[in-house]
Amino acid sequence: MTILAPHSDRAVQEYRHRSGARDTYWINELVKYVRSQGLYDNFRLYPFMPRTNADSGSTAYGLGGLTANEMTLVNGPTWGSSGISFASASSQYGSISDPISSGKITVFHRATLAELSNFYAVFSQWEPSSNERSFMYYKSTVADEMFTIISEDGEAFGRYSGGDQSAGIDISHVVQYGSDGDISYYLNKSLQSMSLQAGSAQTSRYDSATDFLLNALQSSGTPTSFADQTAHALAFLTGTLTTEQRETITDLINEL
After folding, report:
1. What is the CATH number of the domain that holds 22?
2. Is this structure's pTM higher than 0.90?
3. Angle at 96 between CA 95 and CA 101, to 5 degrees
4. What is the span of the domain harbouring residue 65?
5. pLDDT in tens, 71-94
6. Does 2 reside within a domain?
7. Does 70 fall in a domain?
8. pLDDT tens across 119-135, in order?
9. How many domains does the chain have?
10. Of 170, 176, 216, 189, residue with least CA distance to 73
11. 21, 78, 89, 153: which has the fewest C-beta neighbours closer than 10 Å?
């Protein structure tokens, strides 16, 4: 059975036909809200739950005006009842060809992370070998602690530590990388305490030409530092958000 919201947004209807998604009710509610706030052209959503995307194959489809680029799934991550499962042992990751420019960005990543003690990348647009660093969110080697990192020129960086890994919990990790170098990190709507741990405070976010990677970072052109996680949804939103907008979008992503 196909589940559509009454008066589905035209972009949602197009997405449904392109991806094969059968349940687009909450996608439609999210798109309606983003449009009502004048944010649609700054937005891109990749749903991963059953019936909200292709549910098979090597392409995870997206919708939104920020980019038309789809996500390519590499080395066979598994579509399943809780989303797309990535295994570090199989070097599995998702790749989106450079979907964003410079400026402030909020990344909404709803996922269940495995409890690993080693370093791994949750998501990144980060290539250190060619000074194409922009931002990265990753697990440190410290138990339960997360790192966020930002670069203003592709080379220098500020690395912030703190916050909760929330291993084994289906939760939205919401990370804001500001055009003024500010970094904020939320679990759902709860602000996490972060502090500058290495490098220096950055004044902006670099417009890297490297691909955005889910579940890896790039080093000398080769993805590495893979995680074990099940991804439920990913979204980008550029520009400044109010607290109400960020929290409402988080709530809607958690309904997908």
Report:
1. 2.60.120.200
2. yes
3. 135
4. 10-253
5. 999 999 999 999 999 999 999 999
6. no
7. yes
8. 899 999 999 999 999 99
9. 1
10. 216
11. 89
